[in-house]
Amino acid sequence: MLSKEYLIDLLKENEVFLEGDFTLSSGKKSNYYINMKKAITEPEILSTISKLITEKIKDDEIDKVAGPALGAVPIATAVSLESGLPLLMIRKEKKGYGTSKLIEGELLEGDDVIVVEDVSTTGGSLLKAIKAIKDNGGNVKRAFVVVDREEGAIEEFKKEGIVLEPLISVSEFF
Question: Hey, which of 21, 35, 89, 169 has its CA 20 to 30 A from 101?
């Protein structure tokens, strides 16, 4: 049965939530860590995430699914395969060789895009990816995160006029 509860059970079984002393990508210190890189390498977890997101967007008119590198790319790829939507990968910064693109995949002017992320703390990396999409002519319609740490990301997104939709919040896990 595909549900939020099933996803939580899978994350628990795979020991994705770790307790200890950790420094997060935002630089903040935390007494727990959500190892989503481990989670998204497990086919059943990745499949469940992609099905849950695809179910949420099935009635929307969406052109593309995007994810910022690195953690969201497998999620965006799985959603792309599940939904049949073309994929966009958003680099952290333009590469200094080849095509020097910030966005890999074909983003057309006016494309309606959903963005996905693995974990949100402050939402900074996903907001940066959203800015890249908007700056390149795309319209971000919805934003999803697998786990929201409940440390301000949802509020930051509201300031930008975007609703961040977590599949689960950290308080639901504990």
Answer: 35
CATH number, residue 17: 3.40.50.2020
The CA angle 6-119-84, to the nearest 5 degrees, is 70
The structural domain count of the chain equals 1
Euclidean distance between CA atoms 105 and 62, whole angstroms: 15
Determine if the pTM surpasses 0.85: yes
Q: Please classify residue 13 by burial: count the beta carbons closer than 10 Å to its beta carbon, then call 0-12 exposed, 13-18 middle and 19+ buried.
A: exposed
**CA–CA separation, 138 and 114 (whole Å):** 10
Adjacent-strand bridge partners of 113: 64, 140
Question: Which of 63, 42, 61, 71 shows the shortest CA–CA distance to 145?
Answer: 71
Domain of residue 65, residue span: 4-173
Distance CA 62, CA 88 (A): 13
